[in-house]
């Protein structure tokens, strides 16, 4: 059987020579990706020697970093998944007020900067914290594992939520009614019907949270304190000692578990999903929950929501406060400071826009070929498109530094390296958005155009291209949001001329310039939200919307 | 009645598939299929899913190329010709309307590709909108239309091309039952009026029988039988065809005698007497008697003389459908399905009954074992 398919694949590949543009596109994409994704990865892995790798076990500090990373990932994943589960259950099954607000709370952290929660947490509970110092008169050290755990939980539960909620929404309430109809109690329905159907989604959500916590750089660098983690330790090796080898060892130690989580999610959880993408509406109103359960869920969601809103509120307040912790009067000087340094904001926007346009275009072409053309290597192309998603940002950044600081491609310190790194980092995001859009295109519209007398070029131009506009916009916007808020990928590759907003904020925070950092953050979030709203407006005209 | 065309052969073969074989990865979708379709004919490809009917039609449209065999359209070989040069408008099962174009743009897209003048396009569009009752909807997008309207747009988009061929791939399968019956009548009338040679793919025998000039029944990549609806229904060539186009009773019989233009068949001590009607059977052959439910009549048991073709049995079950009652009658351990098309207002028959076979409407097949 596999032989037959192999033969079919070869047959399809031979047919490609009749379609030179398609063939050229495929060769270009493979070569391009190999050079900018595979090559840097190989470079990083092969820089250290075997004895360098053994240092991971023998050097206490690095072993500690590995242990800490794993521990932090485990506890944060548990807390993220628990909160995500309660939120999803409440939003999909409970008849409570403020649902729109809860939904908004789960969206906020996704469109925000990676270290926003850490920054705000420090402003709230730190040495100069508004709650700890001003209200309670305490002097607390928030830096360390507990603070980081809290921050990671708030930052990444929305990622788990989006997966779990999607699954719960699509589990038809009719199934639950069917079980009630057969005489099951509430608990039996939950345990025997609802929970088994959600389980793959919960696992998927947990893994998404895990990979994000594991590879996160922004929050640990701000609030981790003495707690060494793999990404922050790798960063210290470079900026502190310019020790490329050790950094590579630590980054590789990060890559391995990240790849494992990625593979489990993709090939194990993915195959166990009961959800079919039919977009079927829930047909019956969910069964009424017992009052204590319902209001218990509601209170929990309110508590989390208040916390999240406080985090963001604090940031805005901080942006307009003279000297956080000392002088609480209102000022515009922070904002003025940001406008004076507008080059960094402009860089952020510029790099995000260019890389996202590139990523969205490349991903759209890839998605189109994988979904609509039989080229014999569809599976390989699909793998190429999702692969960068398994590579931690810090690893990719390091890879770019090592691979492209010498000929043939010497682009260290240029804008090009920033754009290219962000471009490839965002391909999986754009690809998913494009695939979702292209799957909506009926399988025979292209056949219909050909049948009416349009040649391949005309059918692409008249039918496919207009229909790809929506997937392109979706991919572009998601990629733009990720790029503007990205820190881990660019931290190694920026130069004084290509410094971006997120890096400035990191610098401001380490200097204790809270007000300016907050102002900078508020401006970047506003830009992200502005672009998002603009896209939603445009997509609404096309009868669709962006799912985050 | 001389044909306007020079050759009769050409007229009978407006579309011709000659020994067409199509292989997919792990099975043979079309196995040496030959089929000729005369000009103006409504030809239905009928068969269960996976029998190759859609594949055969798609070979003509050029969506894929057969491994072996030739395909002719209007006397010209079309193998290797790209889809967009074949002029074989097709109505897709899921309509395949362009979601980003209005009704008018959808319908006129083919004309636009031919660079037809805007005014001429408008005239043709008007004609189509009228024919398909779509007036006033021309500026809507497909998703703003009902299923039935979308389907009419799909017809209009294909017919506006003014070709002599129309391909229809289960175009009615997404409509609800009642609408489907209405549309098939309309569609057949339009096809006859315009004289378009049509290939219609379906798995629904009612559609096939009610619309077609000819039906080709397919199974596993082969054509089992080609014929008029009457031939297919009353004179199927094998059990598969007989069973596929409607409910049927099969009775394994032995030929007792062939004499005086009558065939005498023996089944469990009962003799059936049927008209000879060109069947090639001889004494001692085993055969299958093919009986449609409506070709058997049912009467209350009268204990009367048991002549040929009359059997005694017992009603085991019935189902009342309004215009007809369907009975399941046990005779000697075998069940006969019988339709009584003139149900009594008082209710169904019960208990012992007589059933009588109409000797003019039976059919016999050679034993397939």
Give a description of the structure:
- The complex is a heterodimer of chains A (548) and B (369).
- Chain A is an all-alpha fold.
- Chain A has a domain at 58-331: MetI-like (MetI-like fold, Orthogonal Bundle).
- Helices cover 74% and strands 2% of the residues of chain A.
- Chain A has helices at 2-15, 20-46, 50-58, 60-93, 99-107, 116-125, 130-135, 145-170, 173-181, 186-215, 218-223, 230-241, 244-269, 291-319, 333-340, 342-372, 378-386, 393-403, 415-440, 445-451, 456-484, 501-510, 514-541, and strands spanning 321-323, 327-330, 405-406, 409-410.
- Chain A has a two-stranded antiparallel sheet with strand order 1-2. Chain A has a two-stranded antiparallel sheet with strand order 3-4.
- The model of chain B is unreliable at 1-8 (pLDDT under 50).
- Chain B has 369 residues and is of the alpha+beta class.
Summarize the structure.
The complex is a heterodimer of chains A (548) and B (369). Chain A is built from 23 helices and four strands.
Feature tags:
heterodimer; A: 548 residues; mainly alpha; MetI-like fold; two-stranded antiparallel ribbon; two-stranded antiparallel sheet; 23 helices; globular; B: 369 residues; alpha+beta; Rossmann fold; OB fold (Dihydrolipoamide Acetyltransferase, E2P); six-stranded mixed β-sheet; five-stranded antiparallel β-sheet; 9 helices; elongated; disordered N terminus
Cross-sheet strand order for the largest sheet of chain A: 1-2
The name of the CATH superfamily of the largest domain in chain B reads P-loop containing nucleotide triphosphate hydrolases
If you average the pLDDT of chain A, what whole number results? 83
Assign the CATH architecture of one domain in chain A.
Orthogonal Bundle
**What class, by secondary structure content of chain B?**
alpha+beta
CATH homologous superfamily label of one domain in chain A: MetI-like
Q: How many DSSP E strands of chain B? A: 20
The CATH architecture assignment of the largest domain in chain B turns out to be 3-Layer(aba) Sandwich
Uncertain segments of chain A are 276-282
Instruction: Compute the separation of the termini of chain A in Å.
Output: 40 Å
* Overall 3D shape of chain B: elongated
Counted beta strands of chain A: 4
Largest interface: A-B, 25 and 27 residues
CATH topology call of the largest domain in chain B: Rossmann fold
* Biggest pleated sheet of chain A: 2 strands, antiparallel
Instruction: Please give the domain count of chain B.
Output: 2
Cα gyration radius of chain B (Å): 25 Å
